[in-house]
Structures are given as structure tokens and as C-alpha cells.
């Protein structure tokens, strides 16, 4: 183990883990004050439950030898892993934690907490681990195709965005959506923490303190900044105001989009990716609002659409001198087909299996997906956790 690489990767692990509390603030600020603790707990419990699942069998299914579709049980309990291998398993654990936490933005303020805990176990086992194996394991079929996904455009963001659509569809609409977020500073703080932690997410995915990490670091920042500015400018043109929530959401969209590309593109490519993310995700939010789908915190529009654009944009802007693979601009048109197959496979599998998992949970007596109407009206904080986020009730 190289001490410099080890120190950087331990830092990256901590940065990626810190993103999940950042997500908790980001989501928590967007809901009614009566549901802020419930929303935060969705993310916090992902840290607890997924950590255990990942250690016991999740990592083995994702990165065990197995075959091109799934790993095996050769490293249950991380048996035999030491040094660099154990460090890699730890780093990957942090990705597994935040991915299902992302989904919760689509189902806040109405999803049963006990069912959510079971959903975490099943989803990480049956959806996240197989797709992770396809894309990142050396014998995974998407990896073998040569698809480019440096830090999780398909595995994390498209996967979570599509699962969010399935969840919002089956759970149904909220009874009384809040007219506005209850705590905008929480939203901006959460986005800032996500931006900070994302440097570990992307720059750490090269698994070394080297030139690739430096390049991934700078393009991550550039894409986030470009998307935040683009979203803010479009909002100002349309409404005459530049929304703090909009700029924060734009930054997250840029971070999502640069994730698969961060090890393959240069600064100019990052500008293009961030600009596209700001445009596509902004209008995806407007389009979603015209549908009957109550994706409460716009997971599909930001993570799904942002991840989709990022995965395809990786094929467009990839630079051979940076990541070893030329993109469309450098004359390699084949890579676009490969990227499209990876995207479609992720969308299809995540959608179908997530729908099955949730439908089964909904049919099991005593579980179900939705909190009772009285609980929803009272607020999930008191009903499910026996606590309130604020001493005074205040206004929603």
C-alpha cells in the first residue's frame, strides 16, 4: 500500500460518506417542517443499513468473481480482504450508501419508514449490486463492452433516477404538498456539502493520488459551476428572479452530469457538460410538473436526466490523452453506441426490478408503501419517530 494513495483514498471515503448527510439537509429543507426529521432519517438510516448489507453480502455480489451478470459469495463478510482490496471495498461502500438515499426524494412525506428499511436491503441486493457488477467489475458485461462510467453516471444516478420514477408512480401523490420549501438555507447548505463531498466521489474514483485525480477534481468543479450559473440565468430570464434553490439544484445537476465523464474529459468538455446539465435538467423539472407523477424533490429530473446526459456526453467529449479513450468529437463514433447500450440496460433493469420489489412490499400484510392518511396529515416526524424538528410548530 502506497502511503500517499492510501491517505488520499481514506480522505475520499470520508468525503463521499459526508455527501449523504449533505443530501439529508438538501432534501430536508425542501419538505414541510413536520416531515424534516423523517426526510433526514431516510438518508441517515441508509448509512446504517447499507453499510451492514454491503459488508455481509453486497460487496461480494457486486465485485465477487461470479460471471458477467453478477458476482458470487466468495467474499461474504469481506472475508480475506486486506490492504488495498479492503480500502476499495470501503470506498465502494460509500457509493452504495448514497444511491438508495437519492431515491427517497421522490417519496418523502408519505412513505412508511419500516417498509423503507426492508426496501433498502432488497434494492441494494437486487438492483444496485448487479448493475454495479455490470459496469465496474472486471468481468461485468458492460465493463467488457468498454462503456465509460468513471464514477457512477449509470450505477448511481440513472439507476436512482429511474427507481425514483417507479417509486413515485406506485406510492402515489402526496395529500397536501407544501406550497414552498420550509428551510431554504438547509437546501443551500446541503448542496454545498454535496459539492464539497463530490470531489471525493469523482477525484477518488481513479483510486490514486495522481494526474487523473487532479483532472477529475477540476472538471467536477467546472461542471457544477457552469450548471449552477446556467440554471440561475435561465430562471432569471423566465421569472425575473434568480432562485437560491434553483442555483443549488443546478449545481447538483452539473455534479451529476460530470460524474461519469470526470476521468475522461478536459476542462472545455466539462463546460459543455455543465451547460447541457443546466438546460436539460431545468426543463425536465418543468416537464415533470406537467405530469401526474409526484416525484416530490425532482430526483428523476436531476439525477435521472442529469445522469443520462452525462453518460452520453462522456462519449461525446472524451479525450484520448486524458482517459485513454477518444470520444465522438475526436472521431470515435462507436463509443456512442456503447454508451447508449449501458444507459438503456440500466434504465430497463432498474425500472422493472424496482417496480417488482415495491409491488411485493405493498402486498405483504403489515407493510405497504404508504403511511395512513392520519399520519400523513399529522406529519411523519411525530407519527413515526416521536420527535419534532423544531420546538415550536411554526408555519409549514
Please explain how this structure is put together:
- With 396 residues, the chain is mostly helical.
- It has one domain: Ammonium transporter fold (Orthogonal Bundle), CATH 1.10.3430.10.
- The chain has helices at 3-30, 36-63, 83-103, 113-136, 141-145, 153-171, 184-203, 211-239, 244-258, 267-289, 299-317, 320-323, 334-363, 373-378, 380-385.
- Helix 6 (153-171) runs parallel beside helix 13 and helix 8 (211-239) runs antiparallel to helix 9 (244-258).
- The radius of gyration is 20 Å and the shape is globular.
- The model has no long low-confidence stretch (mean pLDDT 96).
The CATH homology group name: Ammonium transporter AmtB like domains
State the helical fraction: 55-70%
Number of strands: 0
Report how far the terminal alpha carbons are from each other. 52 Å
Structural class: mainly alpha
Salient structural properties:
396 residues; globular; 15 helices; mainly alpha; Ammonium transporter fold
Briefly say what this structure is.
With 396 residues, the chain is mostly helical. The chain is 70% helix and 0% strand.
Topology:
Layout: H1 3-30, H2 36-63, H3 83-103, H4 113-136, H5 141-145, H6 153-171, H7 184-203, H8 211-239, H9 244-258, H10 267-289, H11 299-317, H12 320-323, H13 334-363, H14 373-378, H15 380-385
